[in-house]
Specification:
Helix content is about 35%, strand content about 20%. By secondary structure, the chain is of the alpha/beta class. It has a single domain, classed as 3-Layer(aba) Sandwich (Rossmann fold), CATH 3.40.50. The strands form 2 sheets. An 8-stranded mixed β-sheet has the order 1-2-4-3-5-6-9-10, with helices on both faces. The protein has a two-stranded antiparallel sheet with strand order 7-8. β3, α1 and β4 form a beta-alpha-beta unit. α2 packs across α3, α3 packs across α6 and α4 packs across α6. The relative contact order is 0.15.
Length: about 280
């Protein structure tokens, strides 16, 4: 892997929370990737992706969402989806001040992809392109009626009521080492609150409703055998997306974390091919 600089810092997020961020920078680069991680994890999990992007001449910036990783906040809680969007807005502006005269691309996974979509729906012309992977636009198994009823009722009465959001790590990747590290990672958690639940459900609907207004270039990638986020959600979003510069790829047989899959190099090549002409 190419030589690089790795450092970290913090910034003030919405409501005054202290947000942790980190970056990896090679000696020379033209583009900056702003990474948005999934629910219950943190910005440092995708080391394979970080190493690949560094080798391809990109700087990588990522921050831990509120209530995740090293950032402050109740685990798995948000008061409003706008908190995620506003945190990302603040972070991107910090990155742009540090990295002037570069091309800026969002890369978001699952819930991070949903946040990225909602961000560009509200903030046009801030980044040069968006890549989303296995985006949480539609849940594969839906939500049990009882759980949905409890979540909706408690969202207003007891918004910080915490529930377990159980995901079988086996369905993250066919790479057993990735699954093992996920299960052993002390910064990974399975908590969500009732308000988080309703805000995510609402965000999925709004993302679809506003898709036609988005004009930024989009690369939509999804796992064909995703047992968490239904690939049909990405297909529907692609069809509704207003951008004339858009591409959709479904990876047959892949599990949710396509960037951590056994055959991740196939995905990396598709990302490289899409990014290259957009650096000029």
């Amino acid at each position: 892997m190419s030589q690089y600089i790795h450092d970290s810092g913090s910034f003030e997020g919405a409501g005054g929370l202290k947000m942790h961020f980190q970056f990896f920078k090679p000696k020379k680069y033209k583009g900056v990737i702003i990474y948005i991680h999934d629910r219950g994890e943190h910005s440092g999990r995708y080391i394979y992706t970080i190493e690949h992007l560094i080798d391809k001449g990109f700087a990588f910036y990522g921050f831990d969402h509120r209530g995740n990783g090293k950032s402050e906040g109740k685990r798995g809680h948000i008061d409003n989806m706008d908190d995620y969007i506003n945190d990302l807005w603040t972070f991107i502006n910090i990155v742009k001040k540090r990295e002037e005269d570069k091309k800026y691309f969002i890369l978001g996974h699952s819930m991070g992809g949903l946040i990225g979509i909602r961000f560009v729906e509200e903030h046009a012309d801030v980044v040069d392109g968006v890549i989303v992977t296995s985006t949480a636009l539609k849940l594969k198994k839906g939500v049990p009626k009882f759980r949905k009823f409890i979540g909706e009722k408690l969202s207003n009465l007891w918004p910080k009521f915490s529930m377990k959001n159980v995901i079988d790590p086996v369905y993250l990747s066919h790479d057993k080492d990735v699954v093992k590290k996920y299960m052993e990672d002390e910064m990974v958690h399975n908590k969500i609150t009732s308000r988080f639940f309703t805000e995510m459900m609402n965000a999925m609907e709004i993302a679809m409703e506003k898709a036609e207004k988005v004009e930024v270039p989009f690369l939509i990638l999804h796992a064909g055998s995703d047992e968490i986020s239904d690939p049909d959600g990405s297909v529907e979003f692609y069809e509704k997306l207003g951008s004339q510069d858009k591409k959709l790829i479904i990876y047959d047989g892949f599990y949710n974390e396509i960037l951590n899959e056994v055959d991740r190099q196939v995905v990396f090549k598709d990302i490289d091919k899409w990014l290259k002409p957009r650096l000029s």
